[in-house]
Structure prediction request, 379 residues.
Amino acid sequence: MKTGLVFDEVKDKLARIVDTLFSLIPSGVGSEGAIPKLSKQDEKRLLRDGARWAVAEGYGAQDDLSYMEEGGRLATADAGLVSVRALERGLKQVGTLGSGNHFLEIGRVEEIYLPPTAQALGLFPDQIVILIHTGSRGLGYQTCEDSLKVMNQAMPKYGITLPDRQLACTPIQSPEGQDYLAAMAAAANYAWANRQVIMSHAEKAFMKALAVSPKELGFSLIYDVCHNIAKIEEHVVDGKKRSLCVHRKGATRAFAPGHPQIPAAYQKLGQPVLIPGDMGRYSYLLVGTETAMEKTFGSTCHGAGRMMSRAQSRKQSQSMNIDQEMARRGVVARYQGRGTMAEEMPHAYKDVADVVETMDQAGISKRVARFRPVGVIKG
Prediction:
């Protein structure tokens, strides 16, 4: 998301903004309560309609849907294939960040690499932007667990043997494969609705903390892009257009200019791509390219990737004053548990600049702007 604010306007009020965000957007393991508990009927509508459900309920604007991958909804979703346990876990968690590497980050536009593209996206130097990284929460996790059990039991009849149960799979056209794709689509719709509600709460938090109107804030969505999702797409293979199931895990979509699934406003630019780094250095906005369509099925990287395990990072963080370390880096941080922060400190991650530069030099996605984090909330 972008705002009409510049850093100098908010730097003395950052703690107030981050505190307000932290109070309105629950985070942490099992976090809930951002909105009233859903009825089972409402939850099934949400799983069917995705971000459209959130907009219909008053969270954000209709225009937001135009700036989401798939318009914020996979039509192939079937809530009837989501387990009772998964549905129960999802009733209270809409509008929450969760834990692990999920976050909400306030950034300032630190550098612009492609000025015409940045201008077309509404970005300018020292502008305040917001990144949200979260997904389908407990409902999605449970759906994955349920599917692993089904697929592990089904693999022998398809002659599939694997060294790790986490690699469980079945043929796409099998009953188990089709059921999984429909349940996964429902979880993806939950994720879009979840982020839409969080975005709406973030806008309210900024307005409350700064005592400004929506017009003065100028809050709007640049793009909502997925990762850890399987989708049926058309790609050219050996000179022929084919329908493929593209599974992006640790990757995001990066479609080229002119692709029909890119918002009309971005047709000449290419699809916006958001690549977060660690919470102490920087994140990036890029755009997709024709090279990505040719070489990587319209995909680019999702983030920096870990350099340390969570246990290693906790050990290195034992003697560290986390608040002082984040403040030294110019970041106001709020979090539910020290353990999660210790696992997610900047030293645990590769330098995302190196990853992004590789993507840029390979022509898979082109750098548009770099954001410096100034505020963050985590689980």
Remarks:
- The chain has a mean pLDDT of 96.
- Residues 5 and 363 are 32 Å apart (CA to CA).
